[in-house]
Amino acid sequence: MNEPLLSLWNKTPTRQAILDFVAAVATPGSPDFVPPTERIAVFDNDGTLWCEKPMYIQMDFILRQLVARATAEPELRAQQPWKAAWEQDYDWFGEAVTKHYQGDDRALEIVMGGLLALSEGRDVEAVEADARTFVFNEHHPTLGIPYRDCVYQPMLELLSYLEANEFSNFIVSGGGRDFMRGFAQELYGIPRECVIGSTVAYRYVPDESGGCILQRADLDVANDGPEKAVQVWSFTGCRPILAAGNSNGDLEMLSFSGGQALPSLQLLILHDDAVREFDYIAGAETALQAAQTSGWNIVSMKHDWVTIFPS
Question: Each residue of 133-144: pLDDT tens digit?
Answer without folding.
Answer: 999 999 999 999
